[in-house]
Design a protein that fits this description.
Blueprint: E1 9-24, H1 27-30, E2 39-40, E3 48-61, E4 64-65, E5 72-84, E6 90-101, H2 104-114, E7 118-120, E8 123-129, E9 136-142, E10 149-155, H3 168-172, E11 176-182, E12 185-192, E13 199-200, E14 203-207, H4 210-214, E15 228-240, E16 243-245
Parallel strand pairs: 6-7
Antiparallel strand pairs: 1-3, 1-15, 2-5, 3-4, 3-5, 5-6, 8-9, 9-10, 10-14, 11-12, 12-15, 12-16, 13-15
């Protein structure tokens, strides 16, 4: 198995105001989606899947301002894998089940270069300060207004998590992405960003039609509470050109 090589930067952007809703899930649901050359990753014996909503700002492709819509929202559903390396170490990564953006051009570009399952839908967000001026109120939506899928949360001052506290660092510190263009070929790409401080969320609202958006295997996510809901302010992110790996 070849070690990953450093690849040129394909895309750079600011990822900001990230909300994570993290659920435990039966690993058998995800096993058919695990790309060749990787394995399902677990944390403290549990398998996790995350709904992530955030702002994608100041997008550049090969260092050049890209798309007519350089700033937009994204909502994705992802799970966690690891890739064994020759030296006995492991490389932590994510696999995206589906990524939603408001632009068909952006969705096409991501599908073409990375084989990711991007789709375009109507999207909107609201990010405001509370009456005290300290709390941060966030809401992300996708779909038409009458049946929109909504993820809202309130972030309060002083809610920062410690570096070794709970699920947060495991969820946010995956710096590789894996996608399968075909059953016998996996593309690996590096995603670089600073280590994000994490805030706990105690007040949130989730109204998502997981079955309608992602399929019958994910119906139960609409019926249970997430194991945790987290917020990260975010940072600049670079996504490197992918390379093909094999078993």
């Amino acid at each position: 198995m070849k070690e990953p090589r450093k690849r040129p930067v394909f895309l750079s952007a600011d990822w900001h105001n990230l909300l994570f809703a993290n659920y435990t899930i039966d690993p058998e649901i995800l096993t058919p989606l695990v790309p060749n050359g990787t394995e399902l990753d677990v944390h403290n014996g549990s398998c996790y899947i995350s709904l992530v909503a955030f702002q994608f700002l100041n997008t550049k492709v090969f260092g050049i301002p890209a798309f007519s819509m350089r700033s937009f929202d994204e909502i994705n559903l992802r799970f966690y894998v690891k890739r064994p390396l020759r030296d006995g170490k492991e490389q932590s990564g994510v696999v995206f089940i589906k990524e939603i953006v408001p632009s068909r051009l952006i969705a096409w570009t991501a599908r073409t270069f990375y084989g990711e399952n991007y789709i375009a839908m109507e999207m909107s967000h609201e990010i405001t300060n509370g009456q005290s001026g300290l709390d941060l109120n966030l809401t992300y939506r996708c779909g038409v207004k009458e049946s929109s899928n909504k993820f809202s949360a309130v972030v309060s001052p002083g809610s920062e998590m410690g570096e070794d506290e709970g699920l947060g660092p495991y969820i946010t510190e995956h710096y590789w992405g894996y996608s399968s263009h075909a059953q016998d070929r996996t593309v690996e790409y590096e995603v670089k960003h600073l280590k994000w401080p994490i805030n706990k969320i105690t007040e949130y609202s989730l109204d998502f039609d997981f079955e309608g958006l992602y399929g019958t295997p994910y119906r139960s996510l609409s019926e249970i509470e997430p194991a945790s809901v987290l917020y990260c302010e975010g940072s600049v992110v670079t996504v490197h050109l992918g390379s093909t790996i094999s078993r």
